[in-house]
Design brief:
about 425 residues; alpha+beta; 5-stranded mixed β-sheet; 14 helices; 13 strands; about 35% helix; disordered N terminus; binds 2'-deoxycytidine-5'-triphosphate
Length: about 425
């Protein structure tokens, strides 16, 4: 498969983003319970309401102010928050405790990743709440701050959770940058700022330096990344083996790792919100056509075929409706996407709409001969086609119509 013609960019000119969601599980809980906003929230693994067993998976920043942190016993978190809130005379524990709900956090994570795939072709998700993006092929350094700011806003708008973003010419510096000003952080480190950005940081901040290595480095008189950068490389390699060379490189802002996309997306989508909910159907149809075009531009560029075409409609206050239609064979057929999207929106005529999306899924990334509906119809008519089925975009017998009301419909391998 082609990589969309992405040019190889010299490493010092790469623009790498590291996106890390803020207190992710707690933010997910806040998304479905907005009254938890600005309050100390503790999400506990093995926690049950009214009990004190289990361990802290994450805590909101309000709880962290009172030294509640990941991996702590819930009993300790309860004690610290109660002490901080001085609720000795109250039977209620201070703070808000919720048990871990992985299925829900994963669905929110998929929504975040859908946004990332919308804005970049090169996305590597490294955990449920963390991903690297390489956007060197679509912008220059002067555009990076606005791009990152818009991405933060877009994640918040589409998935309802806050992110911190670091931008740098390589992965290790971008990760440090995303952590530098959490929560709600945005730190851009341009190529000529990398050394001065890293210099004052403790060596432990660097990827590959754990507490033990940091202690050994201290014994060598090296406390900061700047001192590590200036240190004699041979001495580091002698002491730490090849890892000594790697951390020396990271301290100097060198990291040649390439953001390798993991797996292929399961769907491609574009979404767009109206400034205010509208029921102007002309307006809605125009927006839908534009979204369909954006999606099919991406599928054509990436040689992607799709079998399912769908729309997402958000009506006030925040109700998410999805509708989709599946063909009997994969196609890359932009006019068909537009036609089906317009067809699916019909039932919403007259209703106010806040937000719209167009999505194609059931993707095939192999080069195929049959990339248009006509090809499939021709093939379907051939006698060796077992089912003789042909895609019927207008709802014929071989077309499945799916109606689901799930908020999260974007999944990735
Ligand atoms: N997690 C966990 N146990 C840990 C660390 C993390 O269960 N010891 C879970 C809960 C976190 C999620 O993984 O919400 C993401 O991990 P992060 O390290 O990114 O932590 P947060 O997103 O919670 O906080 P931050 O704002 O520091 O990124
Ligand atoms: Mg996080």
């Amino acid at each position: 498969m082609s990589d969309g013609g992405r040019p190889r960019v010299p490493s010092e000119e790469r623009i790498v983003l590291h996106v890390d969601m803020d207190c992710f599980y707690a933010s997910c809980e806040r998304r479905r319970e907005p009254e938890l906003q600005n309050k100390p929230v503790v999400v506990g693994m093995g926690y049950e309401a009214g009990e004190s067993h289990g361990a802290v998976a994450t805590a909101s920043y309000e709880a962290r102010e009172h030294d509640v942190e990941s991996a702590q016993a819930i009993s300790q978190a309860l004690e610290r928050l109660s002490r901080a809130e001085n609720t000795d005379d109250s039977a209620e524990p201070a703070g808000h405790y919720r048990p871990v709900d992985m299925a829900y956090y994963e669905s929110v994570s998929e929504e975040v990743k859908a946004v990332l795939h919308e804005v970049a072709d090169t996305v590597r998700a490294v955990s449920i709440d963390e991903a690297y993006l390489d956007v060197s092929d679509r912008l220059g350094w002067e555009g990076a701050p606005v791009f990152a700011r818009n991405l933060k806003a877009r994640i918040h708008e589409a998935a309802g959770v806050p992110a911190s973003i670091g931008v740098a010419p390589n992965m290790s510096t971008a990760k440090i940058a995303s952590d530098y000003d959490k929560p709600d952080g945005l730190v851009v480190v341009a190529p000529d700022e990398v050394r001065s950005f890293l210099a004052p940081l403790a060596t432990e901040t660097l990827h590959g330096v754990g507490p033990v290595t940091a202690r050994e480095l201290r014994s060598m008189g090296i406390e900061t990344a700047g001192e590590l950068a200036e240190a004699d490389r041979h001495r580091l390699v002698e002491r730490f083996g090849s890892r000594g060379g790697t951390v020396h490189d990271h301290a100097r802002g060198h990291d040649d790792r390439v953001v390798e996309p993991v797996g292929n997306p399961k769907s491609l989508s574009n979404e767009s919100a109206f400034t205010e909910a509208t029921d102007s159907f002309d307006h809605i149809r125009d927006r839908l056509v534009a979204l369909a075009e954006e999606v099919t531009t991406r599928t054509s560029q990436r040689s992607v075929l799709y079998k399912t075409i769908g729309i997402k409609v958000v009506t006030p206050p925040f109700d998410v409706h999805t509708r989709s239609r599946s063909l009997s064979g994969p196609v890359d057929d932009p006019p068909l996407v537009e036609r089906i999207a317009l067809d699916l929106i019909e039932e919403f005529e007259g209703r106010p709409i806040r937000k719209l999306g167009v999505r194609v899924s059931n993707l095939s990334f192999v080069e195929a001969d049959q990339s248009s509906l006509d090809d499939w119809e021709r093939s379907a008519a051939e006698p060796n086609d077992p089912g003789g089925a042909s895609p019927q975009p207008d709802g014929g017998p071989t077309t499945e119509n799916e109606c689901d009301r799930q908020a999260s419909v974007f999944e990735f391998l």
